[in-house]
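Section 3.1: Structural characterization of target chains.
Under the original work plan, the team committed to producing a structural model for every single-chain target entering the pipeline before any wet-lab resources were allocated. The record below documents one such target. The sequence was received from the expression subgroup and is listed exactly as submitted; it comprises 168 residues.
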Amino acid sequence: MIVDLEPFLVLVLGLRYPLHGYLHTLLLASLLGLSLGYIMFVLERFLRQLYRAFLLEPGKSLSLTSFMLAGALGAMLHVLMDSPLYDDIRPLYPLAANPLFNPDLTSMIYDISLWMGLLGAMYYLYLLASTGFKALKRRADASTGTSLQGCEEPHGKGAEKRPEKGSA
C-alpha cells in the first residue's frame, strides 16, 4: 500500500508525472519496502501497546530481518499484482515495457484480493473471539476460585461438604 503513495500524490497534487512511476518498479518498490520495514522495526517499541490492544503482537519479538523482508516482499507483491492491471507500470525498469500487462487477469486479481481480505478478516475475528473467551474464563476462574474445565469442588479440596438432603 505504501507504493500507492505515488499515484495518490500525482492525483492530489496534479503532478506531471506518470501515475504509476518509479515506485511501481520491482527495484524501487523493494528498496521502499526495506526502508519501511526498518522504520516499523524502530517504531515497534512505541507501537507495542497499540499492537497489544488490537491483538497484533506476536508471541516473541521479531527480528529486523523479518521486518525488512516483510516490507520488501509486500511492496514487490503489490507491484506484481498491479502490473497486469495497468499498462503504464514498468515493473522491470529500466526495461521500458510491461511484459506482465494482461487486462484479462483483472477480475481474477480483484477476486483473489477480495477473498484473501475476507480470509484475513475471518482469522482476525477468530483471534479476537478466542482471546476474548480465554480472558473471560480467566476472569471467571479468578473470581470464583474454580476452573470452568473439569469437575472441581466449588472452593477447592479443603472445602466443607454440604450435608445431603435427608441426612441429619
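The mean pLDDT is 84.
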